Amino acid sequence: GENVEQHPSTLSVQEGDSAVIKCTYSDSASNYFPWYKQELGKGPQLIIDIRSNVGEKKDQRIAVTLNKTAKHFSLHITETQPEDSAVYFCAAARGSTLGRLYFGRGTQLTVWP
Amino acid sequence: NAGVTQTPKFQVLKTGQSMTLQCAQDMNHNSMYWYRQDPGMGLRLIYYSASEGTTDKGEVPNGYNVSRLNKREFSLRLESAAPSQTSVYFCASSEWGDAGELFFGEGSRLTVL
């Protein structure tokens, strides 16, 4: 099956700085790569996703890049704010079974005011 | 708008006891999922139901059974609980299996002694 590696496991940044989280995947057939944010005591919530026919996608302060050749994708958060503090998960899926996600182990992001 | 509702939120079991986790969604979604989340392990898919009347195994199905009771409800049963099943369980739904975004409940924390 698919194996998704995520780094770093913890990340601390100052408010206003940028944060970057990186993931690699093993299954070349994977073609859907979402990012989920999980706040304490809550379920994960989708913040952005990208499909394999696109190299980059932006939504305000959040962007995701995908390199299919190298099998890696990254989440970029600019102008970080304390409310960005949470656990972030990358994931991968393929074909018509996009709910069958393979998750990375998560990154605890802390944004210090 | 309740979204995905899970019950119970907390449960303590003794080894060998059985229990059922309940999940209901009010978004008229076709596909539903059960994931478990363990510290440092991300989320792993236990079972999913692509549509009413169908269920399939995910990544870690051993020790679990599921029932898609109707379009709204998807239950997860532990027939003989083991300490290795101590985890936080998340139910999720999506419009269709290929629709992308999963909507998660708030989780059910299960401890098996």
Description of the molecule:
Chain A starts with a strand and ends with a strand. With 113 residues, chain A is mainly beta. In chain A, strands 2, 4, 5, 9, 10 and 11 form a 6-stranded mixed beta sheet that branches. In chain A, strands 1-3-8-7-6 form a 5-stranded antiparallel beta sheet, with no helix packed on it. Chain A has strands at residues 4-7, 10-14, 19-25, 32-38, 45-51, 56-59, 62-67, 72-77, 86-92, 102-103, 107-112. In chain A, 0% of the residues lie in helices and 54% in strands. Chain B is an all-beta fold and 113 residues long. Chain B is built from no helices and 11 strands. The radius of gyration of chain B is 13 Å and the shape is globular. Chain B starts with a strand and ends with a strand. The chains are: A mainly beta (113), B mainly beta (113). Chain A binds chain B through residues 1, 4, 6, 9, 32, 34, 41-46, 49, 89, 95-106, and chain B through 4, 31, 33, 40-45, 48, 50, 58-59, 90, 92, 94, 97-102, 104-107.
